[in-house]
Amino acid sequence: MRRPSKRLILVFLISLAIGYAVSWGIMVGVLATEFRLFGFVNVSVIAALIAFIIVTFLDGPLNLGTFDWPQPVESEGEEPARETVWSWLVTVDHKKIGLMYIGTSLVFLLVGGLEALLIRLQLVAPDGTVVGPDVYNQLLTMHGTTMVFLVVMPLLAGMGNYVAVLMVGARDMAFPRLNALSVWLLICGGLLLNSSFLAGGAPDAGWFAYVPLSSQPYSPTSGMDFWILGLAILGTSSIATAINFVVTILRMRAPGMSLNRMPIFVWTILVQSFLILFAFPSFTVATIFLFFDRSLGTNFYVASEGGNPLLWQHLFWFFGHPEVYIMILPAMGIVSEIIPVFSRKPIFGYVAIAYSTVAIGFLGFSVWAHHMFAVGMPIFANAAFAGASMFIAVPTAIKIFNWIATMWGGSIRTSTAFHFAAGFVAMFIIGGLSGIMLATVPIDLQVTDTYFVVAHLHYVLFGGSLFGIFGGLYYWFPKMTGRLLDEFQGKFQFWLMFIGFNLTFFPMHVAGLMGMPRRIYTYAPGLGWEVANLLSTLGAFVLGLSVLIFLVNVVLSLMRGRVAQADPWDAWTLEWATSSPPPAYNFAELPPVNSRRPLWDLKHPEDPDRPMHRLPRRLREADQRVLTTRSEPAAAPETQIHLPPPSYWPITMAVGLTLTLAGLIFTPVSTVVGLVIFAVAMTGWIIEPVH
Amino acid sequence: MTVTTSAETQAPTETHDHTETLDLRKLGMWVFLSSEVIFFTSLILTFLIYKDRSTGVGQDILNIPLTGLNTFILIVSSLTMVLSLDAAMKDRQRSMKLWLLATIILGTFFLSVQGYEYFQLWTHEGLTPAGNLFGSAFYTLTGFHGTHVLIGVIMLWGLLIKALLGGFGSKNFLPIELVGLYWHFVDLVWILIFTLVYLL
Lengths: 691, 200
Hints:
The complex is a heterodimer of chains A (691) and B (200). Chain A has 21 helices and no strands.
């Protein structure tokens, strides 16, 4: 990326000023915001959004060069097409969509992180007065919801979009327009959810929204309705992506790439997609019931009328537990890609890792009530779920041992990506250990709903998923942008994040064991919780700083980072067999895939990976069938590459769906308009020629 | 480096539609339907749990003959859907469009009969969503099924328009087959609902 032109900077600053004026006017003049700090944050966010919109629409007419990245640094002689706002709005290219996912998620990472910092400020000392209980409840709910649905899930979807498609050697996803719909639903859903801050209050009943707290009498603002409808949109986005991944991975792999030769990351995306397909509908049904209870006066969850509040918990956690595997499996996949490359050894126990991924997928549906040990289920039920929860540690441990065995005896290259991958292994072990403790019913009854659980979930979700994701970002940034992230800054950022992370979350184990409950907006002095909370808050700000350093690294590297060749890490999977970033059509020629490491075979023809010979006969025969039917080269070399054409129906349909649901809170007019737009978009989508 | 680009690495394309090999789009529709199975399972299970815990108005007020007729209508619409697909595969344009139109009409008829049934239950029998658990579960379950039928009808309209523009033929009929799969699924769910809600 070139340095931003003076014109761009000037236009941006003017737009920012306009943005501030407009949003300040709305916030103070119309909505009369109460909390100063909060109000400033909201104003800034809206100002930035307005500035962004103005800048991007003026980009064309004023030739500001906003979108002049990423480009292949070594183009093949032809001028790459100039990016415009419009090209991003109508793209169906999985690479652009992947970047949109990642960009959106990083913005929401800042939003969720800000919410966390406000929480930590409030809790730094007893009798905190930074925010009141109402705002605090909104902060904690939105922090959890944002991080789960708007950060971790889309980051993984984005990396899957960009990388997994390349890894299987495909030109694009199976359903490119559906892919575009997914990302626009993410953006619209995230905006709808966060617009609640301005429209009477954000959701405030916790990210798992237990009834009766989330029902109308105890959550009278429309915050929970925003939560329900926003997540309905996001759930649709995820299910669409899952369908895309399943079909792409099962049917569009390169010739010679049997399931046995897929990269582990692709395995994890495949299993995660099935988890999404079978878990999200349960959540959708749960929220439908809640929405009807709140708006129509039904009694699905009202005990006094014969309903059962526990129905919410069962339906939610039947989704909620697979959801955490949805968040961790692809991160484990990323780690499974990074560790071998930087240990210069193939992954140890590929088959065991693949099987254990599938096992975790299945078992993940059998443990949901371990989130409900304290609600009064019969002892046998508690015991069964406890046993299943402990059992699911086995496939997880298999992976941990395999990663360690991969590193063992390898020739380690300590890149930043490797730091994060190793950090993942270490932090996930700690999180897993506290998880096993929680699976033990007597311990859980003592520490449930305390900060011990908060510590556990952050160790696995931050120390696990997010570390894995950061590792992936460092690893694949050169592929996506053509530049390398600075390694020195990267390692510094890693250690800062590592220290900050442990400083924030380790003391929470102690606080939880000392009885500090979750979701309290303050606490009395003299309970012994002060030290732990102080440490956590300090750690949180160190974490925040590390995220900022990461973003600075991204911006600086985009502008003047070292140019990356096709294969900067000397890696082995197909995404490295094309330029950085890849051309629109991904691959000019695919290397032959005869093993799990096609690029190793290419670079070391004297020592190729041996074909599988220790598989059971049945699997070997299945492998052979796949290989013989899929390894014939095309009858004639292609003279023209057909790419799926861009389309404006995905964004139109996303807007239509969002308006339809938003109207259920704001005004029926919006629902009617939304339905019309949806019908038009559906028709247009069907009629549109795709070839 | 050998050139081994394969037709299969491209998005679904230039080749003719097949029904023997599993086309990408068909696999996609089946995967989507598997997710819908869980959706309707959760709704049906909740209904089954709640109908016996409900007080007040119950199953006996349901109009089985009327809904039986509705079930018949929906089943016939599945038949017309298949006939439309068959006509498309044989390039009989006029039949294809007529059978598509018939499916749309039957689907719309189903929805209006259901609307009429709702009206009767609500105003004459006093079964309301908020009145008791049976009402809540009943309207939610059948209402979401009806929504799926509505979305199906919208998709069928899209198909009809494309058919009128000459978009389908013996070489290109997969979208009809896909919407047909969806339509049959919705029909199957209705048969389940009809059995569990009305008959048992």
